[in-house]
């Protein structure tokens, strides 16, 4: 009796152990299949996630982590402070466009983004050339090493040597309108007046983009990098070949870019009357070399050598462009050179028979184009 009972109990226990083991094995197999996407592989629909998929996945996770840490911090002051969200490259991850809030502030953010992307359409009366903010601050101002707006948003007010005073964000944006967008040739005749809605909307956009970044943190990826100086220095004549090989396909041999059927630039102009003026940061060979090496040719960033970047930047900056607006405060081009151009640029030098920095007239530009590119002005 006893032995019979014991045997029965033993086999019940064994069955249970086998049962549990079986369940564990099935669970492990299932998890592995799921984890490594084996079913998808078997059905041939499996493909390695692309670098950009992995990047946006990492970005999404970083933002999610920030939201969770903020919630904990809200609930308890002893929770640890939220960390700045960073993605695969170690750079700050701005919030996704889809997360712009659905309220009045969000409306301002959206307007700011539209101004940034299509400046000529949405703030047209202050734009005197063929450019948009996003032509130089890429991926709607989100891209590291393309002077991203999230880094700018945590860096102002600041002292600037250029105008020797404390600059608010509004002052800084005014500077890019005045020089990079050549506002002197716009309908209004200058950058937006102080307190204009254009500034408020742009500032809302930048502030929203920096949500999660520490104030005054000099985040990596801010501004444009500068390639190290080379033994040969820079030379615009050497840069001509680099330009022909890497840039002309989009920006055209004559540097005037290309437009779509509606007359809007798809590839922006690099010199001449529709480009930025002689006061813009980009006309400095070192700044342009950094922008170009880090961002051009579009889709192949960081592919040019240091030497190529310096030379092609020099080539682009050796052409005429709209006058420095500060020229009107001085006696002459030479005085403007002395006062404002003691850095790496060609302002005041005569290249291809034209004194760089002289105001461009329709006639002088037409003659220049005819002589150098043998064609009608477009
Ligand atoms: C022709 C190219 C160009 C265009 C167009 C342009 N910018 Fe800039 N922007 C620059 C350069 C160059 C700098 C200086 C970056 C540096 O110092 O590394 C800069 C800097 C800035 C900064 C400060 C960045 C920082 O980290 O301190 C802000 C803000 C800014 N631009 C806003 C704008 C806005 C808004 C527009 C459009 C209205 C605009 N920019 C159009 C070239 C441009
Ligand atoms: C595949 C096309 C393409 C190639 C090739 C290319 N670019 Fe660009 N470039 C663009 C586009 C498009 C923009 C505007 C970026 C944006 O709005 O996202 C731009 C912007 C620029 C700008 C700032 C805006 C302006 O008009 O001043 C400069 C400077 C520039 N490119 C120089 C160069 C140089 C130099 C090369 C060659 C080393 C080059 N690019 C190659 C497409 C190209």
Concise overview:
With 378 residues, the chain is mainly α. It has 16 helices and 6 strands.
Give an account of the 3D structure.
This protein is mostly helical. Among the domains are: 91-209, Cytochrome Bc1 Complex, Chain D, domain 2, CATH 1.10.760; 236-373, Cytochrome Bc1 Complex, Chain D, domain 2, CATH 1.10.760.10. The strands form three sheets. Strands 1-2 form a two-stranded antiparallel ribbon. Strands 3-4 form a two-stranded antiparallel ribbon. Strands 5-6 form a two-stranded antiparallel ribbon. Helix 4 (104-117) packs across helix 10 (197-209), helix 11 packs across helix 14 (306-316) and helix 13 crosses helix 14 (306-316). Strand 1 and strand 2 (165-167) form a beta hairpin. The mean pLDDT is 91. The chain has helices at 2-35, 38-42, 51-75, 104-117, 119-122, 133-136, 138-141, 149-153, 169-180, 197-209, 236-246, 248-251, 285-295, 306-316, 333-340, 362-373, and strands at 158-160, 165-167, 258-259, 265-267, 350-351, 354-355. It is elongated and about 110 Å long. Bound molecules: heme C (2 copies). One heme C is lined by residues 119, 131, 133, 135-137, 147, 151-152, 155, 172-173, 176-177, 180-181, 202, 222-224, 276, 280-282, 287.
Specify the biggest β-sheet.
Answer: 2 strands, antiparallel
CATH topology (level 3) name of the domain at 236-373: Cytochrome Bc1 Complex, Chain D, domain 2
Average pLDDT level: 91
Task: Give the class from helix and strand content and strand pairing.
Answer: mainly alpha
The percent range for strand residues is: under 5%
Instruction: Extract low-pLDDT stretches.
Output: none
Q: Per the principal axes of the C-alpha atoms, what is the gross shape?
A: elongated
Which compounds are bound in this model? heme C
The share of residues in helices is 40-55%
Question: What is the radius of gyration?
Answer: 29 Å
CATH arch. level architecture of the domain at 236-373: Orthogonal Bundle
First-residue to last-residue Cα separation: 108 Å
- The tally of beta strands, per DSSP, is 6
Report the top-level CATH class of the domain at 236-373: Mainly Alpha
* The named CATH superfamily of the domain at 236-373: Cytochrome c-like domain
Strand order of the largest sheet: 1-2
- Count of helical stretches: 16
* Helix/strand order: HHHHHHHHEEHHHHEEHHHEEH
């Amino acid at each position: 009796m006893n032995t019979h009972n014991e045997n029965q109990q033993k086999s019940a226990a064994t069955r249970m152990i086998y049962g549990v083991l079986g369940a564990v094995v099935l669970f492990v197999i299932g998890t592995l299949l799921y984890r490594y996407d084996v079913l998808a592989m078997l059905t041939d629909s499996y493909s390695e996630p692309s670098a950009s998929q992995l990047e946006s996945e990492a970005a999404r996770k970083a933002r999610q982590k920030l939201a969770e840490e903020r919630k904990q911090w809200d609930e308890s002051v002893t929770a640890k402070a939220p960390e700045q969200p960073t993605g695969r490259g170690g750079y700050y991850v701005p919030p996704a466009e889809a997360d712009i809030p659905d309220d009045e502030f969000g409306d301002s953010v959206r307007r700011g983004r539209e101004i940034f992307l299509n400046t000529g359409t949405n703030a047209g009366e202050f734009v005197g050339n063929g450019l948009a903010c996003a032509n130089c601050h890429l991926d709607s101002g989100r891209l590291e090493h393309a002077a991203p707006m999230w880094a700018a948003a945590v860096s102002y007010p600041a002292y600037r040597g250029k105008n020797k005073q404390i600059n608010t964000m509004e002052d800084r944006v005014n500077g890019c309108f005045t020089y990079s967008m050549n506002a002197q040739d716009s309908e209004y005749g200058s950058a937006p007046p102080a307190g204009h809605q254009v500034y408020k909307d742009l500032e809302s956009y930048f502030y929203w983009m920096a949500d999660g970044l520490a104030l005054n943190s000099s985040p990596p990826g801010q501004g444009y990098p500068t390639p190290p100086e080379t033994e040969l220095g820079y030379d615009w004549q050497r840069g001509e070949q680099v330009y022909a090989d890497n840039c002309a396909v989009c920006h055209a041999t004559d540097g005037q870019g290309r437009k779509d059927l509606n007359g809007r630039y798809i590839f922006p102009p690099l010199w001449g009357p529709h480009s930025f003026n002689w006061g813009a940061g980009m006309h400095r060979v070192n700044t342009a070399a950094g922008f170009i090496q880090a961002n051009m040719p579009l889709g192949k960033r960081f592919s040019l050598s240091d030497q190529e970047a310096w030379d092609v930047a020099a080539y682009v900056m050796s052409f005429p462009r709209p006058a420095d607006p500060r020229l009107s405060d001085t006696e002459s081009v030479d005085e403007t050179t002395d006062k404002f151009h003691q850095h790496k640029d060609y302002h005041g030098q005569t290249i291809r028979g034209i004194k760089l920095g002289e105001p461009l007239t329709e006639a002088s530009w037409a003659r220049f184009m005819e002589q150098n590119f043998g064609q009608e002005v477009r």
